[in-house]
Amino acid sequence: MRTAYHEQLESLTTQLGDMCGLAGTAMERATQALLQADLALAEQVITDHEQISAMSVRAEETAFVLLALQAPVAGDLRAIVSSIQIVADVDRMGALALHVAKIARRRHPQHALPEEVNGYFAEMGRVAVELGQSAREVLLTRDPEKAARIRDEDDAMDDLHRHLFSVLMDREWRHGVAAAVDVTLLGRFYERFADHAVEIARRVIFQVTGHAPEEEGLPLSR
Amino acid sequence: MRTAYHEQLESLTTQLGDMCGLAGTAMERATQALLQADLALAEQVITDHEQISAMSVRAEETAFVLLALQAPVAGDLRAIVSSIQIVADVDRMGALALHVAKIARRRHPQHALPEEVNGYFAEMGRVAVELGQSAREVLLTRDPEKAARIRDEDDAMDDLHRHLFSVLMDREWRHGVAAAVDVTLLGRFYERFADHAVEIARRVIFQVTGHAPEEEGLPLSR
């Protein structure tokens, strides 16, 4: 009985890890759709989002059944409670990728982005995939060193975001207000995507060590 | 034993309701700080945020203890799992009020907002307080009709947000890109605040009726 239970708990973790991977892939594709003004790819991200939503519902249900049937205690209980919270974070990561894809679709056949900022978004898309992969690894390995890597990736995202804003705020910005609004929102979506990955790592590490990771140098997501 | 347990569960709901009220008040004050360029008020919102964070930690801990000590089943278990998810939503509402206050502080002694959009933000601030109050009432009464009121308030927020964007996108916008960036982010913060209130109502109603409220006309937060 205990063994079947731990198998289920492990399967829940695998589900969450898979969702992180999918969210990263969604953000990668949404970024491509944005950069290439690729309508078909934007549509694909929008359609594929159903899958992440369905997996969220399934993961919540798995966690609920584990609580209901097994009445777990101590560490196991903490793991399941964390899982319920992590579902919300990774679900949101998927929704943020969806938002990016929707802006790409709304602006099609135009490019949403002025060419000047393409490089920033290409890089933010690359970091987003890494964050999805790293969150997955942290979930599967519960390794604090891997969690520290997420901190570095989040720092990279913050730097990109800050530079992007300095480009926007520059008096030389000559792409008008509408493009500035899109770039502001898009930048925010990538930043929040990273925040949620950090939050997932924070929850896993808290669960493993009993300390909030910010005490161990991993900043709290805000 | 069962009675003490239900008292604890009720106290958890009260905690969540109080947090919703505080988040609404925080957004009201942050809005005032923004409109009046009132640094002291902005600082107060920033300081008071600690209280919401501390209450989040406490509410999560209460929920955890209830799960650990009581091994609840069925409806009670669902109520506690929802509570854990609701903590995350209301915590985020507080963080969004904090973000508004921080923009007011960053721009002080300037006003962050061009006078032209003050009216929109005054109104969004008013709706935010109502949303905090309504979320509190939905939590305490579990009344689907009160949940429907949140839908109306969210619609009002969406309308304000849409109008705000049409002002921004207008060729007549003459406040420059920096102000447009602030207005974009601020508008997004109010919109997300409303989304989280809707999500709280959705969770409460799902728990009461077993149906997602969108099946009953309450739109899913996105």
Molecular structure report:
Chains A, B: Belongs to the PhoU family. Chains A, B: Homodimer. Chains A, B: Plays a role in the regulation of phosphate uptake. Chains A, B: Residues 18-103, 122-204 form the PhoU domain. Chains A, B: Its main location: cytoplasm. 2 copies of one chain form a homodimer. Chain A is built from 6 helices and no strands. The termini of chain A are far apart. Helix content of chain A is 83%, strand content 0%. The first copy, chain A, has 222 residues and is an all-alpha fold. Chain A has one domain: Methane Monooxygenase Hydroxylase, Chain G, domain 1 (Up-down Bundle). Chains A and B meet through helix 2, helix 3, helix 5 and helix 6 of A and helix 2, helix 3, helix 5 and helix 6 of B.
Rounded to the nearest angstrom, the radius of gyration of chain A is: 19 Å
- What percent of residues of chain A adopt helix (DSSP H or I)? over 70%
Shape assignment of chain A: elongated
Strand share of the residues of chain A? under 5%
Briefly note the CATH topology name of chain A: Methane Monooxygenase Hydroxylase, Chain G, domain 1
Largest sheet report of chain A: none
CATH class of chain A: Mainly Alpha
Which regions of chain A contain 5 or more consecutive residues with pLDDT less than 50? 216-222
Please, what is the average pLDDT of chain A? 92
- The tally of helices of chain A reads 6
User: Which chains share the greatest interface?
Assistant: A-B, 26 and 26 residues
CATH architecture of chain A: Up-down Bundle
Oligomer: homodimer
Distance between the termini of chain A: 40 Å
Class computed from helices, strands and strand pairing of chain A: mainly alpha
- Order of helical and strand elements of chain A: HHHHHH
